[in-house]
């Protein structure tokens, strides 16, 4: 949360791009002026956009906003640090566009006018002969007839004090709204005339003060008291009786000789000393936190009015190294705007209706050590946690209850003053809408059309009827899919899941995951979605986890992402890798899975030792069961879109577990326009319909499963190993040829165990051939695949998969 150093990367890029554009087009901008004389102007684009101090440490001039490079603030900033840091700004509430101008007029007034010529800012003095930006970062207006300056920026601070600057009694700092938005923010630091130095939360937009959250407790010490940041880098509050209170208790450990320094009232309300080593030349240079006040802002702010340190319905945590606070949303809540977290969180679900009895559609999720004090509307004593939950669940007004040692406090929205602290001892129970992963009845196992109750998408799942009529020995049912593309439909509670406890997933902070993975040190692998790291949960270091860092920029809003991930988290099946939790903090999007100790099917199949036939058949059946579950048994069907051996993991007992299901949706670009670049899946496993103008259905997974089944049977890769060789072996054709010639022994490479079971080998090969049919409707459903693999139904002779066109070579 460091004001300058933690800006999202994208904003740095915006800034960088803007700077590049400026410096390339107008290379003369860095020309050194130290005096702005009458008649001189600065403009946002050219010829002179800023003006450096003699040492180059500071610059004064127009600066494009990180959030919108077409808007500019007139500012003073550290020019040599990376990132640069703005320390003063004139028009934070009113950024100007190209065409604006700063001028020291002939009558000695400094004036910022916008593109229409209206004055936006002026220090309100005249008769200045020149203006100068000093090496301290102080901009001064000087009259030749006077020895002292007419005006100085050090006397009109915004959110930052620099060494050499003093905050006199009666003046104040005001935080900006966010790191990127220079408008007036939610906090102020006031050197009061009564001698007290005080931090206040402010009511926006009016700006009146709420109850203070920190002070030096020196009221009555007199109006001569002042906050001094002296030239050698000591920041202290100096009382009239010459007592100095060292604000950050640094005892002068940072000297201005070695460090650039600034003390900034950050947008989160923390008064922070930032230091930046001047000499470290190795790219390690960054703004570091040298001290903060208060150290416990999460629990400090507690007011009857206002949201607290974080926005409404969110909660504050400060467990990082620098103790800077972070704001998080409760489970199933998302930030209204993740770039403006102070606006708070909203539930991802529709609130419980009071009109209808929706008790069964809601459940309570635990959030330990979390509280929103002061907004209780009901209080019970001598109750159990289950009673406390029930009292809230059955009360349509109740959004959250806090359970603490037999006491139960009901709360309604909006929640304020949220915090998570180890010392609380209680538990928040958050009311959330339940999904229902497992409550739909099993689809009939035969050949009936199954209709899914699903608002957005309706899939009619047809199955392959196996009979003995006609040339192909089968009856075909068309598969109709409407608007389903590697996704599942809209999830809204359909049925009660009251008995399903523990199905909810945990929200992790990025810090927790960083710790859990020891700084992302042990990489397990990388896939189409990002890199995967091994970690362990702090509570139980023997519980291993796999943390997947999603590295593509997702188009989803925070809320969509959270919704999707929560839906995925509700899917449990013994052949699926379970999602345990996730993290969604700004640019950080991570998924936390169970750790699978025995690697992937890919390494098993294509490793040095050929796995046993018996084990391979078990794995094939396990994968098929997992796919049936995804396609037919979840509350909303999921098409995996990337079935391949890398995505099948093996647990302690070598049970096959499908990973990465549900992710295709997260990375979708545009579902209605499918181009070659929109193809999901992996070469060698993708169904031909991806390249045609036909709907994508669950049958794409059946195709990939078929290819993989052949790989499991043959322990050979779908595309032959001879890279660059003209004779690239396509496993599907090769296998069909041997199958037709009755040379199953060559398919399994004389695997004795398999040859002892040759009828099963043949059955598996035939099922695979059905699965890789070019026409989706010829492929069986996964349900049917299982029945055939298990021998429950006979498998008719498959047609040549290549005869229906286009397999992917
Ligand atoms: C700026 O102006 C002042 C006053 O006229 C003068 O003393 C000083 O030398 C000037 N500095 C530069 C770099 O021109
Ligand atoms: C200020 O920073 C800009 C951009 O980083 C750079 O181009 C320029 O040379 C710097 N000015 C001085 C005087 O160092
Ligand atoms: C920052 O300081 C300048 C100069 O005192 C003042 O005009 C401005 O209103 C302050 N705040 C913002 C948000 O620009
Ligand atoms: C500016 O200078 C003029 C002439 O020297 C003088 O009459 C006027 O009072 C001055 N104004 C201010 C605000 O000092
Ligand atoms: C100075 O004033 C403060 C507050 O009024 C008081 O706590 C402190 O003891 C005084 N120090 C001296 C040296 O008198
Ligand atoms: C700044 O303050 C510290 C602590 O009071 C003092 O030791 C140091 O001499 C001061 N530096 C200057 C330049 O006044
Ligand atoms: C930078 O300054 C620090 C503190 O003065 C010193 O310990 C360190 O050796 C210096 N490093 C370099 C690269 O000069
Ligand atoms: C609402 O439904 C639940 C469970 O179905 C039931 O226990 C409860 O009594 C009902 N409440 C009302 C007010 O009907
Ligand atoms: C709460 O329970 C304790 C122990 O069961 C009992 O002694 C106490 O009287 C109860 N308090 C109330 C207010 O019911
Ligand atoms: C499979 O996992 C078990 C349990 O963690 C472990 O003991 C075994 O060595 C693993 N086998 C392989 C081949 O990795």
UniProtKB/TrEMBL annotation:
Domain called Bulb-type lectin: residue spans: 33-154, 158-286
Pfam families for the chain: B_lectin, Pkinase
Catalytically driven reaction(s): L-threonyl-[protein] + ATP = O-phospho-L-threonyl-[protein] + ADP + H(+); L-seryl-[protein] + ATP = O-phospho-L-seryl-[protein] + ADP + H(+)
Residues that bind ATP: 549
Keywords, sorted A to Z: ATP-binding, Disulfide bond, EGF-like domain, Glycoprotein, Kinase, Lectin, Membrane, Nucleotide-binding, Receptor, Serine/threonine-protein kinase, Signal, Transferase, Transmembrane, Transmembrane helix
PANTHER family: G-TYPE LECTIN S-RECEPTOR-LIKE SERINE/THREONINE-PROTEIN KINASE SD2-5, G-TYPE LECTIN S-RECEPTOR-LIKE SERINE_THREONINE-PROTEIN KINASE LECRK1
Ranges where the Protein kinase domain occurs: 518-793
Native source organism of the sequence: Cocos nucifera (Coconut palm)
EC number(s) stated in the UniProt entry for this protein: 2.7.11.1
Entry's localization field: Membrane
MF GO annotations: ATP binding; carbohydrate binding; protein serine/threonine kinase activity
Membrane topology: Single-pass type I membrane protein
One CC-aspect GO term: membrane
Protein name: Receptor-like serine/threonine-protein kinase
GO BP term, pick one: response to other organism
Signal sequence bounds: 1-25
Family: Belongs to the protein kinase superfamily. Ser/Thr protein kinase family.
